[in-house]
Amino acid sequence: MPLSLIFCCFAYGLWTKNARHKARSLKSGIFLILLFSNGSLVNEALLAWEIPPVAPHEITGTFEFGVILGGGLIQNKTADADQIFASETSDRFIQPLRLYKQGKIRKLLISGGSVSINGYSTDVSDESRKVAQLLIELGVRKEDIVLELHSRNTRENALNSQKILKTYQNSGKILLFTSAFHMRRAVGCFQKAGIEVQPFSTDFRSEIRNFNPGTLLIPHEKSLFLSYFLIRELIGYTVYKIIGYI
Questions:
Q1: pLDDT 10s per residue in the chain (246 long)?
Q2: pTM to 2 decimal places
Q3: How many Å separate Cα 57 from the centre of its chain?
Q4: C-alpha angle 104/108/110, rounded to 5°?
Q5: Please, are residues 104 and 62 in contact by the beta-carbon 8 Å criterion?
Q6: Which of 52, 90, 107, 115 could disulfide-link to 86, CB 3.0 to 4.6 Å?
Q7: How many Cβ atoms from other residues are within 10 Å of residue 200's Cβ?
Q8: Distance (Å) of CA 30 to CA 3, 9, 14, 18
């Protein structure tokens, strides 16, 4: 998305015959490159948007359910029954596993179905079942795992999880696990669905605040990548807010 904006600026600058517009467009493209590739600025934006981390010792009492939101937990690769390819967002189920082992969560609800789009993309990850398989191998009892296999987006995560949770008479307190940059939208959707959750952010994209010449003055490709994630999430949050999902 940042690259798309930068490309549009340069493309218009090369196309237009108006000298003033050409200069402004090319300068805008250069400005956007410097902005979105600045490690310190992008990290500050992430720190401001992400829900801060919670230490396990700060979790008081026992939660009946920990809800794990799917989406990129397992790589989209064809796998045999005994193969599991965890991805970079696997922290979403590593943290609830730790809390389950510490006795702070009784059951784990894994929410997420296939996100295949006909003619556009194919999802072969079988994500929720693979995550459940891995958690069982790591010591979670099979009867303590509940699967929700139909959700394709955050709103459906909330609505479908609500249907499952209400079948448990004593569903009690709910701990919600998703990526830190996605947590605001997730909490909003669950609250809209009538589920009070306590957020437990995972998979942080921000780092410790660090202003140095390397991050302030030198452009970084990684920062462009992180800018894309943040802008996409801000757009998603805004759209959800406008149409009443949160």
A1: 788 999 999 998 999 999 999 999 999 999 999 999 999 999 999 999 999 999 999 998 899 999 999 988 888 777 777 788 888 889 999 999 999 999 999 999 999 876 554 444 455 568 888 899 999 999 999 999 999 999 999 999 999 999 999 988 666 789 999 999 999 999 999 999 999 999 999 999 999 888 888 888 888 999 999 999 999 999 999 999 999 999
A2: 0.90
A3: 24
A4: 145
A5: yes
A6: 90
A7: 26
A8: 11, 9, 13, 18
- Nearest-angstrom CA–CA distance, 26 and 8: 10
The two most distant CA atoms of the chain are separated, in Å, by 69
Tokens representing residue 150 in the block: 């139909």
Residue type, position 18, single letter: N
Give CA–CA dist 97/139, Å, rounded.
Answer: 9
One-letter amino acid of 239: V
Residues ≥6 apart with Cβ < 8 Å to 211: 40
190 closest CA partner among 163, 229, 150, 169: 163
